[in-house]
Amino acid sequence: MDQNMNSTKEGLISGSGAIQHKAYARVGLLGNPSDVYFGKTISFSLANFWASVTLEPSPHLIINPHPIHDLVQFDSLDHLAGLSGSSAIVCAALSCLLDFYKVRHLIKVEVRPNLILSAEKELGIVAGLQDRVAQVYGGLVHMDFSKENMDKLGHGIYTPMDISLLPPLHLIYAENPSDSGKVHSTIRQRWLNGDELVISSMKEVADIAAEGKSAILKKNYQKLAELMNRNFDLRRCMFGDECLGALNIEMVEVARRVGAASKFTGSGGAVVAFCPEGPPQVKRLEDECRKAGFSIQAIQVVPSCLNDVDLKTLSK
User: Does pLDDT of 79 surpass 50?
Assistant: First the structure.
Protein backbone atom coordinates (compact mmCIF):
# COMPACT_ATOMS: atom_id res chain seq x y z
CA MET A 1 0.00 0.00 0.00
CA ASP A 2 1.37 3.41 -0.95
CA GLN A 3 2.09 5.81 1.89
CA ASN A 4 -0.24 8.45 0.42
CA MET A 5 -3.19 6.08 0.52
CA ASN A 6 -5.79 6.55 3.26
CA SER A 7 -7.97 3.61 4.25
CA THR A 8 -11.72 4.28 4.35
CA LYS A 9 -14.77 2.08 4.76
CA GLU A 10 -15.55 2.67 1.08
CA GLY A 11 -12.14 1.61 -0.17
CA LEU A 12 -8.74 3.17 -0.63
CA ILE A 13 -8.77 6.80 -1.76
CA SER A 14 -5.51 8.48 -2.74
CA GLY A 15 -4.66 12.16 -2.60
CA SER A 16 -5.30 12.33 -6.36
CA GLY A 17 -8.84 11.04 -5.92
CA ALA A 18 -8.10 7.51 -7.13
CA ILE A 19 -10.37 4.85 -5.63
CA GLN A 20 -9.28 1.25 -5.16
CA HIS A 21 -11.35 -1.76 -4.16
CA LYS A 22 -10.63 -5.45 -3.77
CA ALA A 23 -13.02 -8.32 -4.39
CA TYR A 24 -12.07 -11.72 -3.10
CA ALA A 25 -12.22 -15.17 -4.59
CA ARG A 26 -15.26 -17.30 -3.85
CA VAL A 27 -15.57 -20.85 -2.54
CA GLY A 28 -18.84 -22.64 -3.18
CA LEU A 29 -19.04 -24.81 -0.08
CA LEU A 30 -22.38 -26.52 -0.67
CA GLY A 31 -25.21 -26.49 -3.18
CA ASN A 32 -23.41 -25.38 -6.32
CA PRO A 33 -24.25 -25.36 -9.18
CA SER A 34 -27.94 -25.23 -8.19
CA ASP A 35 -27.87 -21.42 -8.05
CA VAL A 36 -28.42 -21.43 -11.81
CA TYR A 37 -31.46 -23.68 -11.36
CA PHE A 38 -33.51 -21.97 -8.61
CA GLY A 39 -31.64 -23.84 -5.90
CA LYS A 40 -29.76 -23.04 -2.70
CA THR A 41 -26.06 -22.62 -1.96
CA ILE A 42 -23.63 -21.78 0.83
CA SER A 43 -20.51 -19.87 -0.17
CA PHE A 44 -17.82 -17.76 1.39
CA SER A 45 -15.21 -15.24 0.32
CA LEU A 46 -11.60 -16.41 0.30
CA ALA A 47 -8.91 -14.05 1.59
CA ASN A 48 -6.11 -16.04 -0.08
CA PHE A 49 -6.82 -14.61 -3.54
CA TRP A 50 -8.38 -11.42 -4.86
CA ALA A 51 -8.72 -8.99 -7.74
CA SER A 52 -8.24 -5.26 -7.27
CA VAL A 53 -9.44 -2.35 -9.38
CA THR A 54 -8.24 1.26 -9.23
CA LEU A 55 -10.38 4.05 -10.64
CA GLU A 56 -8.65 7.37 -11.34
CA PRO A 57 -10.38 10.63 -12.34
CA SER A 58 -9.70 11.52 -15.97
CA PRO A 59 -11.32 13.67 -18.67
CA HIS A 60 -11.10 10.62 -20.93
CA LEU A 61 -11.98 6.94 -20.58
CA ILE A 62 -8.61 5.21 -20.63
CA ILE A 63 -7.87 1.51 -20.18
CA ASN A 64 -4.13 1.18 -19.73
CA PRO A 65 -2.65 -2.14 -20.95
CA HIS A 66 -0.13 -3.66 -18.59
CA PRO A 67 3.33 -4.08 -20.17
CA ILE A 68 3.55 -7.71 -19.06
CA HIS A 69 -0.01 -8.94 -18.61
CA ASP A 70 -1.30 -7.38 -21.84
CA LEU A 71 -4.80 -5.97 -21.36
CA VAL A 72 -5.30 -6.72 -17.68
CA GLN A 73 -3.35 -6.94 -14.45
CA PHE A 74 -4.41 -9.18 -11.58
CA ASP A 75 -2.72 -9.08 -8.18
CA SER A 76 -3.77 -12.55 -7.20
CA LEU A 77 -6.35 -14.32 -9.38
CA ASP A 78 -4.46 -14.37 -12.67
CA HIS A 79 -3.55 -18.07 -12.73
CA LEU A 80 -6.59 -19.62 -11.08
CA ALA A 81 -9.91 -20.86 -12.38
CA GLY A 82 -12.84 -22.12 -10.36
CA LEU A 83 -12.55 -19.27 -7.84
CA SER A 84 -14.69 -16.70 -9.66
CA GLY A 85 -11.94 -14.40 -10.86
CA SER A 86 -14.01 -12.78 -13.61
CA SER A 87 -16.78 -11.68 -11.27
CA ALA A 88 -14.21 -10.47 -8.72
CA ILE A 89 -12.91 -7.97 -11.28
CA VAL A 90 -16.40 -6.70 -12.08
CA CYS A 91 -17.36 -6.60 -8.40
CA ALA A 92 -14.31 -4.51 -7.50
CA ALA A 93 -15.00 -2.19 -10.45
CA LEU A 94 -18.62 -1.74 -9.37
CA SER A 95 -17.51 -0.81 -5.84
CA CYS A 96 -15.20 1.84 -7.29
CA LEU A 97 -18.01 3.28 -9.41
CA LEU A 98 -20.45 3.34 -6.49
CA ASP A 99 -18.00 5.46 -4.52
CA PHE A 100 -16.85 7.62 -7.42
CA TYR A 101 -20.41 8.64 -8.30
CA LYS A 102 -21.45 8.66 -4.62
CA VAL A 103 -24.43 6.36 -5.18
CA ARG A 104 -23.57 3.52 -2.81
CA HIS A 105 -26.56 4.42 -0.65
CA LEU A 106 -28.90 4.25 -3.67
CA ILE A 107 -27.99 0.79 -4.98
CA LYS A 108 -29.31 -1.97 -2.73
CA VAL A 109 -26.83 -4.64 -1.74
CA GLU A 110 -29.24 -7.38 -2.87
CA VAL A 111 -29.32 -6.14 -6.47
CA ARG A 112 -25.59 -5.55 -6.89
CA PRO A 113 -24.89 -9.22 -7.75
CA ASN A 114 -27.47 -8.93 -10.56
CA LEU A 115 -25.63 -5.90 -11.98
CA ILE A 116 -22.33 -7.78 -11.91
CA LEU A 117 -23.82 -10.84 -13.58
CA SER A 118 -25.45 -8.69 -16.27
CA ALA A 119 -22.06 -7.23 -17.19
CA GLU A 120 -20.52 -10.71 -17.40
CA LYS A 121 -23.35 -12.07 -19.54
CA GLU A 122 -22.49 -9.48 -22.17
CA LEU A 123 -19.09 -11.20 -22.38
CA GLY A 124 -20.70 -14.60 -22.92
CA ILE A 125 -19.93 -15.91 -19.43
CA VAL A 126 -22.38 -18.61 -18.29
CA ALA A 127 -22.91 -18.41 -14.54
CA GLY A 128 -25.34 -17.88 -11.69
CA LEU A 129 -25.65 -15.33 -8.92
CA GLN A 130 -23.84 -17.32 -6.22
CA ASP A 131 -20.34 -16.01 -6.91
CA ARG A 132 -21.43 -12.39 -7.11
CA VAL A 133 -23.43 -12.61 -3.88
CA ALA A 134 -20.44 -14.06 -2.01
CA GLN A 135 -18.17 -11.30 -3.31
CA VAL A 136 -20.59 -8.45 -2.64
CA TYR A 137 -21.45 -9.62 0.87
CA GLY A 138 -18.18 -11.20 1.96
CA GLY A 139 -18.07 -13.69 4.81
CA LEU A 140 -20.19 -16.85 4.82
CA VAL A 141 -23.61 -16.62 3.15
CA HIS A 142 -26.55 -18.98 2.70
CA MET A 143 -28.44 -18.19 -0.51
CA ASP A 144 -31.94 -19.20 -1.52
CA PHE A 145 -32.61 -18.74 -5.24
CA SER A 146 -36.09 -20.28 -5.29
CA LYS A 147 -38.18 -19.40 -8.34
CA GLU A 148 -40.72 -17.70 -6.08
CA ASN A 149 -38.07 -15.38 -4.67
CA MET A 150 -36.48 -14.70 -8.05
CA ASP A 151 -39.83 -13.93 -9.70
CA LYS A 152 -41.13 -11.78 -6.86
CA LEU A 153 -37.97 -9.96 -5.78
CA GLY A 154 -35.66 -10.27 -8.77
CA HIS A 155 -33.01 -11.76 -6.49
CA GLY A 156 -32.57 -14.47 -3.88
CA ILE A 157 -32.78 -14.39 -0.10
CA TYR A 158 -29.26 -14.00 1.26
CA THR A 159 -28.52 -14.86 4.89
CA PRO A 160 -25.07 -14.09 6.32
CA MET A 161 -23.68 -16.68 8.74
CA ASP A 162 -20.97 -16.49 11.38
CA ILE A 163 -17.63 -17.43 9.79
CA SER A 164 -16.41 -18.80 13.13
CA LEU A 165 -18.83 -21.71 12.66
CA LEU A 166 -16.66 -23.12 9.87
CA PRO A 167 -14.06 -25.81 10.61
CA PRO A 168 -10.52 -25.51 9.18
CA LEU A 169 -10.69 -25.93 5.40
CA HIS A 170 -8.05 -26.23 2.70
CA LEU A 171 -7.82 -25.14 -0.91
CA ILE A 172 -6.30 -27.43 -3.54
CA TYR A 173 -5.60 -26.08 -6.99
CA ALA A 174 -3.66 -26.75 -10.17
CA GLU A 175 -1.42 -24.23 -11.87
CA ASN A 176 -3.02 -25.00 -15.25
CA PRO A 177 -6.72 -25.46 -14.47
CA SER A 178 -9.59 -26.14 -16.83
CA ASP A 179 -11.87 -23.50 -18.29
CA SER A 180 -14.80 -23.49 -15.86
CA GLY A 181 -16.79 -21.12 -18.08
CA LYS A 182 -17.86 -23.85 -20.52
CA VAL A 183 -18.96 -26.50 -18.06
CA HIS A 184 -22.58 -25.43 -17.55
CA SER A 185 -23.68 -25.39 -21.20
CA THR A 186 -24.91 -28.96 -21.82
CA ILE A 187 -26.48 -29.37 -18.40
CA ARG A 188 -28.39 -26.14 -18.80
CA GLN A 189 -30.00 -27.33 -22.02
CA ARG A 190 -30.84 -30.72 -20.53
CA TRP A 191 -32.48 -28.99 -17.57
CA LEU A 192 -34.52 -26.78 -19.91
CA ASN A 193 -35.51 -29.89 -21.87
CA GLY A 194 -36.91 -31.51 -18.72
CA ASP A 195 -34.20 -34.16 -18.25
CA GLU A 196 -35.39 -36.06 -15.14
CA LEU A 197 -31.88 -36.96 -13.95
CA VAL A 198 -30.71 -33.36 -14.08
CA ILE A 199 -33.86 -31.95 -12.48
CA SER A 200 -33.96 -34.45 -9.59
CA SER A 201 -30.20 -34.30 -9.01
CA MET A 202 -30.18 -30.51 -9.02
CA LYS A 203 -32.97 -30.48 -6.45
CA GLU A 204 -30.95 -32.82 -4.25
CA VAL A 205 -27.92 -30.56 -4.62
CA ALA A 206 -30.02 -27.61 -3.47
CA ASP A 207 -31.30 -29.63 -0.51
CA ILE A 208 -27.68 -30.31 0.46
CA ALA A 209 -27.22 -26.58 1.07
CA ALA A 210 -30.29 -26.50 3.32
CA GLU A 211 -29.00 -29.49 5.29
CA GLY A 212 -25.56 -27.93 5.35
CA LYS A 213 -26.85 -24.74 6.93
CA SER A 214 -28.26 -26.76 9.82
CA ALA A 215 -25.07 -28.83 10.12
CA ILE A 216 -22.86 -25.72 10.22
CA LEU A 217 -25.05 -24.00 12.82
CA LYS A 218 -24.82 -27.13 14.99
CA LYS A 219 -21.10 -27.58 14.21
CA ASN A 220 -21.90 -31.09 13.03
CA TYR A 221 -18.75 -31.39 10.96
CA GLN A 222 -19.12 -35.08 10.20
CA LYS A 223 -22.41 -34.27 8.51
CA LEU A 224 -20.74 -31.38 6.68
CA ALA A 225 -18.10 -33.77 5.33
CA GLU A 226 -20.76 -36.18 4.09
CA LEU A 227 -22.65 -33.37 2.37
CA MET A 228 -19.53 -32.04 0.65
CA ASN A 229 -18.79 -35.47 -0.79
CA ARG A 230 -22.38 -36.03 -1.85
CA ASN A 231 -22.44 -32.64 -3.56
CA PHE A 232 -19.52 -33.58 -5.78
CA ASP A 233 -20.85 -37.08 -6.46
CA LEU A 234 -24.11 -35.62 -7.75
CA ARG A 235 -22.25 -33.15 -9.96
CA ARG A 236 -20.14 -35.96 -11.37
CA CYS A 237 -23.23 -38.04 -12.10
CA MET A 238 -24.90 -35.16 -13.96
CA PHE A 239 -21.94 -33.74 -15.86
CA GLY A 240 -19.85 -36.84 -16.51
CA ASP A 241 -16.09 -37.28 -16.23
CA GLU A 242 -15.29 -36.00 -19.70
CA CYS A 243 -16.99 -32.71 -18.99
CA LEU A 244 -15.44 -32.29 -15.53
CA GLY A 245 -11.94 -33.14 -16.73
CA ALA A 246 -9.40 -35.66 -15.46
CA LEU A 247 -7.25 -33.08 -13.69
CA ASN A 248 -10.19 -31.64 -11.76
CA ILE A 249 -11.38 -35.09 -10.72
CA GLU A 250 -7.88 -36.04 -9.59
CA MET A 251 -7.79 -33.06 -7.21
CA VAL A 252 -10.94 -34.39 -5.54
CA GLU A 253 -9.62 -37.95 -5.49
CA VAL A 254 -6.31 -36.91 -3.92
CA ALA A 255 -8.22 -35.56 -0.94
CA ARG A 256 -10.48 -38.57 -0.71
CA ARG A 257 -7.53 -40.95 -0.71
CA VAL A 258 -6.60 -39.66 2.74
CA GLY A 259 -10.21 -39.66 3.93
CA ALA A 260 -10.81 -35.93 3.51
CA ALA A 261 -14.10 -34.56 2.20
CA SER A 262 -13.71 -32.64 -1.05
CA LYS A 263 -15.62 -30.93 -3.84
CA PHE A 264 -15.14 -28.26 -6.48
CA THR A 265 -15.06 -24.67 -5.28
CA GLY A 266 -16.93 -23.77 -8.45
CA SER A 267 -16.98 -25.54 -11.80
CA GLY A 268 -13.43 -26.84 -11.75
CA GLY A 269 -9.87 -25.65 -11.36
CA ALA A 270 -9.85 -25.71 -7.56
CA VAL A 271 -11.14 -27.91 -4.75
CA VAL A 272 -12.17 -27.22 -1.16
CA ALA A 273 -11.17 -29.98 1.25
CA PHE A 274 -12.05 -30.71 4.87
CA CYS A 275 -10.02 -33.03 7.10
CA PRO A 276 -12.37 -34.10 9.92
CA GLU A 277 -9.57 -36.06 11.64
CA GLY A 278 -7.52 -32.92 12.22
CA PRO A 279 -3.81 -32.02 11.76
CA PRO A 280 -2.43 -35.54 11.11
CA GLN A 281 -4.89 -35.94 8.24
CA VAL A 282 -4.01 -32.46 6.96
CA LYS A 283 -0.34 -33.50 6.86
CA ARG A 284 -1.22 -36.59 4.82
CA LEU A 285 -3.26 -34.44 2.47
CA GLU A 286 -0.38 -32.00 2.00
CA ASP A 287 1.96 -34.89 1.20
CA GLU A 288 -0.45 -36.38 -1.34
CA CYS A 289 -0.98 -33.01 -3.02
CA ARG A 290 2.75 -32.50 -3.27
CA LYS A 291 3.19 -35.91 -4.89
CA ALA A 292 0.41 -35.17 -7.37
CA GLY A 293 1.82 -31.75 -8.25
CA PHE A 294 -1.04 -29.74 -6.75
CA SER A 295 -0.80 -26.66 -4.57
CA ILE A 296 -2.56 -26.58 -1.20
CA GLN A 297 -3.25 -23.73 1.20
CA ALA A 298 -5.12 -23.33 4.46
CA ILE A 299 -8.24 -21.32 3.70
CA GLN A 300 -8.67 -17.86 5.19
CA VAL A 301 -12.26 -16.63 5.17
CA VAL A 302 -12.97 -12.95 4.54
CA PRO A 303 -15.31 -11.34 7.10
CA SER A 304 -18.34 -9.42 5.87
CA CYS A 305 -17.48 -6.74 3.30
CA LEU A 306 -20.55 -4.62 4.06
CA ASN A 307 -20.09 -1.21 5.65
CA ASP A 308 -22.66 0.96 7.44
CA VAL A 309 -23.87 2.54 4.20
CA ASP A 310 -24.34 -0.88 2.59
CA LEU A 311 -26.23 -2.25 5.59
CA LYS A 312 -28.75 0.58 5.44
CA THR A 313 -29.72 -0.45 1.90
CA LEU A 314 -30.64 -4.01 2.90
CA SER A 315 -34.30 -4.96 2.75
CA LYS A 316 -35.89 -5.25 6.17
Answer: no
Cα dihedral 199/142/237/200 (nearest 10) = -20
How far apart (Å, rounded) are the C-alpha atoms in residues 232 and 236? Answer: 6
Last residue within a domain, chosen from 141, 164, 187: 164
Q: What's the pTM value of the predicted model, to 2 decimals?
A: 0.87
Query: Same domain, yes or no, for 21 and 112?
Result: yes
Which candidate, 250, 216, 252, places its Cα nearest to that of 231?
252
Q: 250 and 225: one domain?
A: yes
Quick: pLDDT tens for 285-315: 999 999 999 999 999 999 999 999 999 999 8
146 DSSP β-pair partners:
none
| Per-residue pLDDT at 66 | 53
- Please say if 144 is a catalytic residue: no
Same structural domain for residues 23 and 105? yes
What is the count of structural domains for the chain?
Answer: 2
Contact 209, 30 (CB under 8 A): yes
Catalytic residue among 70, 78, 99, 131: 131
If you ran DSSP here, which 8-state letter would residue 165 be given? Answer: G
Same domain, 56 and 119: yes
- CA angle (47, 51, 54) in 5-degree steps: 125
Mean pLDDT of all residues in the chain? 87
- Band the pLDDT of 76: cuts 50, 70, 90: low
